[in-house]
Amino acid sequence: MRPDTPAENVDHTAEAARLERTADLYPEDAEALLLRAAAHRELSGDRPAATALYDRLLASDAALDQPFLVRALKASNLWEYGHEAEARAIITGIRTAAPRDPAPWVIVAEALESHDELEQAHETFTQAVHLLLRDGTAPPRPAHPLLFGRHRVRRMLGAAHDEWDALADTVHSLPITLDELHDPKRVWSLGSENPAELEAEIVRLRAELGAFREALSRPFPVAVLHWPAAELAELTEAYPDLAREYPSYDAHLATIEAALRELASSGTANLGIVTGTVPSYEAFAASELSSPADATLLPQYATTLAARGRAVAWPPERSAACWCGSGRTYGDCHGAG
Q1: Which contiguous run of DSSP H or E holds residue 42?
Q2: I need a labelling partner for 152 at 20 to 30 A (CA). Which of 103, 120, 136, 159 fits?
Q3: Please, which residues bridge with residue 312 across strands?
Q4: Count of other CB atoms within 10 angstroms of residue 190
Q5: Cβ of 102: how many Cβ atoms within 10 Å?
Q6: If DSSP codes are grouped into helix, strand and coil, which group holds residue 67?
């Protein structure tokens, strides 16, 4: 699936089958590929097939990078086609294990919320927030959905704002406030005969729809290719024609950061960096029946790595390690400009 393909134009069954075939070819990337395949199975309406993919991953001899995320997705999917008891048992197991990754917490809390278990959803969001966020520190971007989800559920429960709701307001970036987005009475405004109320609701819905469309239409990042210093030296020594693309390592790093900033300023979201290796690139070139010296293969190689789940999101948090591997924080390295 191309990253610019509108979600409504996707043949989800065909895309799932393609991803499953790719997972057989690249077993080292099977987890990322099969998770995407399972998502397409769910979107196609074939939820038992999605469960089979989650079970395939959980039964695999290979260690999973995100086992709790796989379990959370399986629980959410099971509940959608009538297996509530099993889904609840998995959710309880995840809450007891208390993983340090926000993603499974978001999945199980939203599963509870979508089935009107608002009190339990609130308890789950709150448990995750207390576990993963520290007072006085800026929450990392992956944890923002925990704050937003908790705010949304508390709004539906009629709870007064607390310090975590205030924090959610500070990290929220859409032009519509969280209180407006999460107002349980919003739906009734659609029946209003007041043009001003209807126009305001359309603006709010467009803000939400835009975020959902963007997430669905680009299942993997627009990625820029990064070569570590040793790999770049090996690459240009083996294929001197590529030295025109990479005059020096420092120039290579500067070009990556500049390209990503330009993409971000143009409105492109979901950006990432993929790290190449010479053996992997040579194998990719062979699969394309082409020479590794062909510079036109480089962006295709980057896209392939991103599709295989190898991209790291850009930009990092300013306090996180810089993507270049210098050992310094992003804010003190390539994020300093």
Answers
A1: helix 30-44
A2: 136
A3: 273
A4: 11
A5: 23
A6: helix
